[in-house]
Every structure is written in structure tokens, then in C-alpha cells.
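Hi support team,

I'm opening this ticket because the web form for multi-chain structure prediction keeps timing out on my end. I have pasted the exact lines I submitted so you can reproduce it. The total is 520 residues across two entries, so I didn't expect it to be a heavy job. Is there a limit I'm missing, or should I split the entries? Thanks in advance, R.K.
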Amino acid sequence: MLSKNKIKLFSSLPDKKSRIENNIFLVEGEKMILELLSSGFTVQTLLFTKKMKGFALNNNIPSSIELIEISDDEASKISSQKTPQGMMAVASIPDGFYSDSFSFRENNLVLALQDIQDPGNLGTIIRTADWFGVKHILCSKSTVDVLNPKVLQSTMGAVFRVKVVYTDLLKTIRELKENSSSLPLFAAILDGNDLYRSTFPLHGILMMGNESKGLSEEFIRLATHKLTIPRFGNSIESSESLNVSIATAILLSEIRRKSM
Amino acid sequence: MLSKNKIKLFSSLPDKKSRIENNIFLVEGEKMILELLSSGFTVQTLLFTKKMKGFALNNNIPSSIELIEISDDEASKISSQKTPQGMMAVASIPDGFYSDSFSFRENNLVLALQDIQDPGNLGTIIRTADWFGVKHILCSKSTVDVLNPKVLQSTMGAVFRVKVVYTDLLKTIRELKENSSSLPLFAAILDGNDLYRSTFPLHGILMMGNESKGLSEEFIRLATHKLTIPRFGNSIESSESLNVSIATAILLSEIRRKSM
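Hello R.K., no limit was hit. The queue was backed up. Here is the completed structure from your submission:
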């Protein structure tokens, strides 16, 4: 049984302001909670409905975590999913989670995202980055928050393995470039060089732009390599662009393929 | 000004049953409506709010289309978007739209989707297929409906260029295989051959499975080529799988790359 105040608090967590003020975030569903439990994050509370009691009792939950059985009604109030999975965890946002410090390690491949707005896109990009061994993602400050419930859900747990850094993106990339003039900077644009046929270094920073506007001029100007995913069939009638999470995946796949 | 009945009818269109019963569907937003107008579909009604009056009057809308100005309030009642774009079109579902007839043309690349549930995934797959010149997508009958508003939105207009056929998928693929024993059938699975290093024909049918279950055994058994997108870094800790629209995109990209 949850107090009214707790219900109010937990159901406010889809809102970034509330997450920051209270320094907690909410994770939903069995798969995500198992990933959370095996990550370094501190879990405060585990909420479960009657149906999910078995899960809560059978998974060696550390005794430091408060276990609370809730009603289906309470679950729908707190959940931001259409069909709540009857299983939610409240975790602390670690100190320094939003630190914007970042140092580029040579031979790493890093993603830089300018103003990605759609939570599903960011989550899917994090999941894909994890698959392709990308450990760091730099995001402009206007990019959707990584602890947004829909972002978390789309990462399928990858959020606990990939470090997402919110930063003044242009400034950060300019500084990285100043410190290392040979740093490869890839810009994904619509009129660049053929991704498949170009040769380019297999590390550096891959810059992806906003869903509707793409990368802005300042970023494109910094790029050492401008890349385009070729359309097939040359039909002027085909799609004008690809979804940003799709384009990111194809670029990462091709960079990794070339390096194998 | 819309009658109560019309508002009720139009706002029921996110529901597949209502679309089928009334033989109409709803398209939202400037970009999608421009694509609809230049497609072969018959548009019955164009709804626009005051703000969008200019669009409705300036785009050479055929006189056969009924133009109705609606209030912002009516727009939010009908729209299935959080922030309605003030611009909606009601179009007829063409005769034969749901016909399951399909003939495979030699050297074509076709997608086959088993039980894709998420509207964003199907829409994004259609958009990506269009980019890569795939003209036909076969869907199992349990795949989400292509005229679902969220599917339409994610296609960004590609839905008017790619033919989506709902069919008894297993039966259809079995028959295609019987008719042409040399038909390449690709299955995207987690323990197949390395996509990058394998050689395979560059046409045929690419089979993709449901978001959580993947392709079922019957489909995998029919495959002539089992393909896997290699993970990078070999970390056992990385993501277990890729989102299905991401995996589809990487496979299509690689097949097209090999054929260039």
C-alpha cells in the first residue's frame, strides 16, 4: 500500500523537472528492472502488483531495496505505459550522472546527437550503439532526456551500459578538434559522399542531426567526412530521408563492417 | 463546421474496425497530405483549422475534395496526435487495397514481416524499404494495420509508394518456394551467418520476425540463408538484440551495398 504522496511523487517521474528535483527515476518491466539490478545504479524501491509477486521474491533482491506490493489501480496511476507490466523500480540518479565532462580516447567511436526530440529515436540509438560497441554518446542540451520513460523503454537496458553525456555540443566538438587536429568528424547529411564507396578512418565522432532539420551548418562545417547513405533505384519519388535512428544504425554498421 | 456525427466518425478512424466498416482512413499533417494528394488515392475531405487555411487554399486542391474549416477543439477531438497539426484528410481505402494477391517478380527484393506489433516499427520499415527501392512488403495477418495513424505518420509518405500485402504469410512463402525452388529466402536470426562476410544472392525475400519472439521456427526452416548482424566488441554484456526496424534497415543496406 502506497501513501497518496508517494503515488503523486512516482507518477510525476515522466516529467524531467520532477526527476531532477527528487533525484530519482522510474524503470518499468521485468527485463529493464533485471538490467537495472545488475547495473551500478542504486535501487530504492521495487513496486509490484500481486501478479508479479513471484518475480519480486525470487530474484535475490538486495535487502536494502524497499519492496512494496501495489494494486493494479496504483500501477496504472504510476506507469507511463498503456499496459503496465505490474513491475516498477525507483532508482537514484547517480552523482555526476549529468556531468558534461568527456574525454575522447583515441581509436574510440563516439556518437554526437544534435537535438534528437523523439524518445523512441534516442532509446533505439542507445540500444544500437550498445550492439555496435559504442560506449559514449554526446548529446546537445536540447536532446530529449535519457531518463525519460519512453527513452528507457526503447533502450531495452542498453542505457545502463552506454554513457550519455549532455553538453554544449558545438563547443565540445570544437574543443576536441582543437586538441586533436586529426580527429575524424563524420557528418551524416543528404548530399555527402557515398557511405559504401568512401574510405575513411574507423574511429572518431559520428554526428547525427535533429529529426526534421538534420545537422546544422556549424556542425557540418567542422566535419572531416560528409557521408550519405545511398538511395537505391534513383527514383526521385522515393523517401526524402531516413529516420535518424535508422540512419545512425546503417552508418554504425558500415563503419564496423569496414573495420572487421 | 462539422456535424457531431462526422466528428464521431472521423475520430473513430484510429480504430481499424471503423476504418474497414466505413472504407476510409485519416491522414494528418502537411507533408503526409501532400504525399497523399500526389498519390493515386481518392481524397474525400480536407479538414483544416484557421491557421492552416492558407495551405488548403494554395495547393491546387482538386474541386472534387470537400474543404471544411474546423475549430482547434474539433481538430484535437479527431487527431490522434498529441499536438494536432491542424490539417487532416479523409481518403477512401481503394478497392483491392487488402487483396492478398502477390506475385514475385524475378530479381526483386521483397520484405516479409511476421507479426510486427509496434506501429512505429512498421512505419519506419516502410520508409526504409522505400529508400532502398523495395516495392513490396508481405505481412502476416497479425501484423499491425498499415492504415493505423501511427504507422502512416512514421512512413513519412512512403506508404503511398510501397505496396503492403496482408496474407497468410507462411502459406504464401511456401507456395512461392514451391513455384521457384531457387528463390532466395533470407531469415534474420541471432545465430546465423555473419551478414558482412557471407555471400548470398541480392534478390529474394527477406523475412523479419516479431519484436519479442523473432521469426518462428517454420519460417526459419524455409530459409535458404540465415543471416546475423555481427555485434561489435564481443561483450556478453551488450544488447541482446536490435530493434526490428533497425535490423531490417541494416540488412537492406548491406544487400544493396553488395549489389552496387
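A quick check on our side: The radius of gyration of chain A is 20 Å. Let us know if the file doesn't open in your viewer.
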